[in-house]
Every structure is written in C-alpha cells, then in structure tokens.
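Severity: low
Component: inverse-folding endpoint
Summary: output formatting inconsistent between runs
Steps to reproduce: submit the following structure tokens with default settings.
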C-alpha cells in the first residue's frame, strides 16, 4: 500500500483479503466492544503468512454516539520468524543438555535454580519440581563432605561461587538420599557467568558420579588394613620379592628373626640385605639367592 492515497477509501477496498474474523471485530467495535490481540496469524490470499499485533476500539461523537472505529495494527512477522528460529535453537540446546552424561545445574544470582538437566535430577535424587522449589524435599536429603559429615550451607557449590566470585574444579561431595542406603558421591566443577558490569548473572555447576571409584578406594583401604593385621599377627618372618635384591616387609616377627632394631617411625619396606645383622647377612643372602634362582628356573 506504499504510495497509495487511502483517504476516503473503504477499508475492505484497500484490503480485500481481510479475514472474516477481523470483519467481525469491526462490527463488534461499532457496537462498543474493544478487541485486541498480541500475536495474530493472517493468511493472505496468495498464501503468504503474516503476523500482526492489533487493537480495535470505537470512537465517539460529541453526543456520545459511536462515530466509527479506530484500528491500531503492527506487523510483527519478522519478530515471529526470529522467535521461531530461536525456538528451534532452544529445543536443540535443551535436547543436548538433557542427553549429557553429567549433571548440569544453572543457578541465578540469588542461588535459585534456573535450569537443571535430567542427569542432575537422577544423580541428586530430586525431581525437577523439587529442584525448582515447586515441591518439598525430604528433610533426610543433604550434602556431605568427603569425610561423611554434613556439608554446611556455606560450603554448597553455588554458595562458594557466590561468596568468592570464582569458580572451582574437582570438588568431591556426597549426597545423602533417602532412597539409598549409602551416599552417592559426585565430582563437581563450577564457574560464574558475569554480566557486562562484572556482576554474577548465573552460576553453572556440572558434576559426575564417582560412587564406584569411592567404593573401590574404601575396599582397597579395608583390604590393606586386613593384610597389615594379618602380617603383624603372624609368627614368622615374611619375605616379599619380585626382583633381585629381595625386599623385606618389616614387622615384629621379622625383626625378631633378623635381629633388626625396633623402628622409631612408621614401618616401611627395606632392602633385604640391610635388614639383617652383619653376622647373619651372608647366610641369609645366599639362601635368598638360591630361592630367587629356583624361581627363575621354575
């Protein structure tokens, strides 16, 4: 319609493909009804789709009678197309986040949760509604420090970042969940996202499950303690060796056999030759050498 003289022409003459729904709106306005829409689809006669934001209201004569209608219209098609592209991009982004093998939680500057993916919900044992504060969390649920004690509120990952303004890596943290007999252990990283003014706008936290690793470490410590107890409780000296010269594990029975003095520090593994008194050393080394050669020949 650019360049056209519209004064004096009928609205439907200028826009012959105007949808019937808008014609109905005009009639309502002539009856005193105000109508509006923020995002209204308009399919033109040639198939082109346009989007408009509009309002239609009556205007009045001096005597209070309706003299006609006023129509405000804004074409927002470009904005709608940009929103559609953004929606597709956000959907791809959401799909990517929800399929990550690590947990992801995004906090606002007030520590409230803005976004959390499915893996975060699974690892923490909380529904998305609980994480967003929409439903209550079981009072038995809590964070743990690496030694198993409760983690104080100021130690929570988001609070650490908000307090310091800095991120961190490699934080080991436990989760005591009512649905599990033992804690879930996580290894987390966090970093702040700052705005143009340098203020924290978001805090992003990622974490992975290291429960199996923690359980393996605990099992190894238990095994080592049992082995140490067995050695210390045995009544004979003990040689352990995989190459020459042999190595000796020092303990009470071995010291008694070899004449070694009681150590003043933590027990440690020593070279076999230095473990015996000078008078016993030649015979012992000769005996060990025979054992070592016999092992190679076997």
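Observed output (run 2 of 3):
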């Amino acid at each position: 319609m650019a360049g056209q003289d519209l004064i004096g022409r009928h609205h439907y003459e200028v826009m012959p493909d105007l949808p019937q729904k808008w014609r109905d709106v005009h009639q309502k306005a002539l009856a005193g009804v105000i109508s509006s829409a923020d995002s209204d689809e308009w399919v033109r006669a040639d198939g082109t789709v346009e989007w408009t934001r509009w309002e239609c209201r009556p205007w009045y004569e001096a005597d209070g009678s309706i003299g006609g209608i006023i129509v405000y219209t804004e074409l927002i098609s470009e904005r709608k197309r940009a929103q559609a592209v953004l929606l597709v991009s956000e959907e791809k982004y959401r799909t990517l986040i929800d399929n990550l093998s690590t947990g992801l939680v995004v906090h606002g500057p007030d520590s409230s949760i803005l976004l959390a993916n499915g893996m975060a919900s699974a690892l923490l044992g909380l529904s998305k509604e609980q994480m967003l504060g929409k439903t209550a969390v079981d009072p038995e649920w809590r964070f743990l420090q690496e030694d198993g004690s409760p983690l104080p509120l100021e130690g929570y990952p988001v609070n650490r970042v908000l307090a310091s303004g800095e991120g961190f890596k490699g934080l080991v943290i436990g989760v005591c969940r009512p649905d599990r007999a033992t804690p879930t252990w996580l290894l987390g990283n966090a970093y702040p996202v700052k705005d143009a003014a340098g203020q924290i706008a978001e805090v992003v936290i990622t974490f992975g499950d290291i429960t199996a690793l923690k359980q393996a470490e605990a099992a190894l410590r238990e095994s080592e303690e049992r082995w140490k107890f067995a050695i210390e409780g045995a009544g004979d000296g003990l040689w352990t060796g995989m190459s020459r010269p042999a190595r000796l594990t020092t303990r009470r029975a071995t010291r008694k056999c070899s004449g070694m003095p009681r150590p003043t520090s933590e027990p440690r593994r020593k070279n076999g030759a230095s473990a015996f008194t000078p008078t016993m050393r030649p015979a012992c080394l000769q005996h060990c050498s025979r054992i070592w050669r016999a092992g190679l020949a076997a």
